[in-house]
Amino acid sequence: MTTPIFAPLRTSKTPPSIHPTTPVRTRFAPSPTGYLHLGSLRTALYNYLLARSTGGQFLLRLEDTDRTRLVPDAEQNIYDSLRWCNMTVDEGPETGGKYGPYRQSDRKDIYQHYVQILLDKGLAYRCSCSKDRLNSLRESAMKLKPPTTVTYDRKCAFDPQHSHTSDDSVIRFKSPDKYEQFDDLLHGKLDLQPQYNYNDRRYDDIVIMKSDGLPTYHFANVVDDHLMKITHVIRGEEWLPSTPKHIALYRAFGWEPPSYVHIPLLTSLGDKKLSKRQGDIGILSMKEKGILPEALVNFVALFGWSPPRETPGVSTSESMTLDQIIKSFSLDHLTKGNAKVNDSKLYFFNKHHITLAINDPQKFQELVDSNFDKFHSFSGGKYNKDYFAKVLKYLGPSLSSLDEIETLHRYIYEPVNYAELTKIPSPDFVHILDRLLHLSSTSFDENVKLLLKENPELTKKDIFQTVRFALSGGTSGLTIPLLIDLLGEQEFKERLTRATEVIIKKA
Predict the structure, then answer these.
(1) Of 14, 171, 260, 330, which has the most beta carbons under 10 Å away?
(2) How many C-beta atoms surround the C-beta of residue 149 within 10 A?
(3) Between the CA of residue 343 and those of 46, 110, 421, what are the distances in Å?
């Protein structure tokens, strides 16, 4: 009977802290078979935070040995995504380092050397079984009672005729009869054994070298982590069943495995595993949606971690910069339950970080510089960067994403299309617009006071709603004085005039 994955074998209290007290070396090892998405970013971020919080190093390694599935621009996308999120890589394909190369496809000779060591020790063997035979073994294994996912019968290890080298042969690792228990820093001591059917003995002999001479993930990640002196591996729970195999490979070489932390799955609010559509959204596509990197990092950091409470019983703000997250990050505050992805929370953080950027002169200038080209494009090239800076300064605190300038606040850069509007003020209020056109005071507030004095039957709400209809089609977000300042006196009067015509025509 298989031991449940999340049933720790010990019941003793968790040590006071599982967070390292010395500098660690962590790595992010994506496969460039697609764009960086939320789950991958979370893995990268936690490894980054652990390295930075301990004064250690964060490595980037590309696991690109599955040559058939590589996406041409995926490697560059990984670099660009990490850079956009302000996650500095200490060692990697771009930055170099003394433990390179950092692309697995460039390490073929290294893997050949280490696989030969296992062959010489009798801990690995060549397998020439055909795909048809392997498929037949899988099918028969599933028909056993009890069925088993361990399918290979070790024919090529037992039969010398099948142990010779051929063009399509692979190399298998000779797995131990029983995997050792291991410690996961988050889940405790775990004993994960495959389910065997002892009436028809099969073996968990994983392939470690493919017929093309390139290693499988299982073998390459063990060799690389050891040679690159990785001390801690943070990865998703889906890798838990593979961990005993990896530790067995470490033991076969006489190496000490790193410390493991397996973090929970990302799920929707309905507690379902994120679908491809939800979870595989490219990180850089968030940039196109007007999300700030600071907000995205803040959002992703909370997928299985929570900041410690500074004062017992008093909640701590979850809105944090990357530097604040690094200072607060500890493995002690990781959570075991699935992490729910709630887009509304992302936009909450985004609004917070847009406001922070607006109030910081340097960050505000960076925000203007990095987003002006897009604004210049969709606004028809009519406005300069100073105008865009003014738009951001005025409108920014009400924005949940920067793309709302284009989608919700088009009145900022183009005339209001009154024909699209369904809510039109009563003709009784036309005189409000007409009177404002002829008042000499430049202060909108002063003009409102004068209108109320001249027309006791009016309310401020009547005036504000009528004027907002004229200036923005009724869209809120800016106070009317700021909107008037942004549009300028000429455009202000033109919109009052056009709105007056529309209201009269609809009467």
Answers:
(1) 171
(2) 14
(3) 20, 44, 29
Token couple for 106: 């460039």
Q: DSSP E strands: which ranges in 338-468?
A: 339-340
Does residue 461 form part of some domain? Answer: yes
Q: What letter does residue 310 receive in the DSSP assignment?
A: S
| pLDDT value of position 405 | 96
Query: Could you report the per-residue pLDDT of 157-188, keeping only the tens digit for each?
Result: 988 665 555 678 999 999 999 999 999 999 99
For residue 364, what is the domain's CATH number?
1.10.1160.10
Domain count, the chain: 3
Are residues 293 and 262 both part of a single domain?
A: no
Q: 262: buried, middle or exposed (CB in 10 Å: 19+, 13-18, 0-12)?
A: buried
- List residues bridging with 184 in a β-sheet: 188, 260
| CA distance linking residue 480 with residue 471, whole number of Å | 8
Which residue stretches of the chain have pLDDT < 50?
A: 1-12, 14, 275-280
The tokens for 80 are 């660009």
Tell me the CA distances in angstroms from 284 to 12, 35, 38, 349, one per residue in order: 44, 9, 11, 17
Look at residue 260 in the predicted model and tell me its pLDDT: 98
No. of helices (H) and no. of strands (E), the chain:
20, 11
Task: Give the phi and the psi of residue 108 in degrees, each rounded to 5.
Answer: -55, -45
SS3 233: strand
pLDDT value of residue 438: 87
Residue 485 phi, psi (nearest 5): -60, -40
**Single residue among 373, 404, 435 that ends a domain in this structure:** 404
Q: Are 286 and 403 in contact (CB under 8 A)?
A: no
Same-domain status, 398 and 486: no
Q: What is the pTM of this model?
A: 0.90
* Predicted local distance difference test score (pLDDT) of residue 269: 54
Tell me, yes or no, whether 305 and 243 share the same domain.
no
Question: Exposure pattern of 376-394 as b/e (b: 16+ CB <10 Å)?
Answer: beebeeebeeebbbbbbeb
Q: What is the pLDDT of residue 340?
A: 82
Look at residue 16 and tell me if it is in a domain: no
Residues 379 and 444 in one domain: no
- Give the single-character DSSP code of 68: G
- Within this chain, do residues 340 and 398 fall inside the same structural domain, yes or no? yes
Q: Angle 480-487/385-395 helices, nearest 10 degrees? A: 180
| Closest listed residue to residue 347, CA positions, set 308, 388, 292 | 292
User: Can you tell me the distance from the alpha carbon of 406 to that of 293, in angstroms, rounded to the nearest whole number?
Assistant: 19
pLDDT at 440: 67
End-to-end alpha carbon distance in the chain: 79
Domain enclosing residue 477, as ranges: 415-506
The pLDDT of residue 338:
82
The pairing of strands 170-173 and 124-127 is antiparallel
pLDDT at position 3 is: 41
If asked whether residues 423 and 455 sit together in one domain, one would say yes
Residue 297 CB coordination number (10 Å) = 23
